[in-house]
Amino acid sequence: MARGRAVSRQRFQPLVNALIADGLVEARSNPGHKQSPLVALTRRGERTVAGIVERERALRAKLRPASSPESLRRAASVLRDVRATLAEQLPELLETDANRSRKIPRRSIAQTGYFFVFR
After folding, report:
1. Residue ranges of the domains in the chain?
2. Second CATH level (architecture) for the domain 3-62
3. How far is 102 from 97, CA to CA, in rounded Å?
4. What is the pLDDT of residue 117?
5. Most buried residue, 34, 45, 77, 113, by most Cβ within 10 Å?
């Protein structure tokens, strides 16, 4: 999960611990990494996820967006283009920025209101 979301395993650990305590997931041995167990749904977790998926399906079936299907397709296309552009250009932009000799004051970064997730 952490790898798929570009965050550290340690960041997910409190969530995993809570899910284990609730009986929704269990830790299993990981042949690929002895110190990082695999996390799998328990039967209770599977039932919980199935209930969530079913509720989401039912709510989506009732949803009546104000936008036309064509408008939604265009918006999705624009978002895919933005994501592709970011995926293509952001690594080079970040590398260039990291190599600048002048350090950016921390407060000026905070004042911009932008947040980035780095892989």
Report:
1. 3-62, 69-101
2. Orthogonal Bundle (1.10)
3. 9
4. 40
5. 45
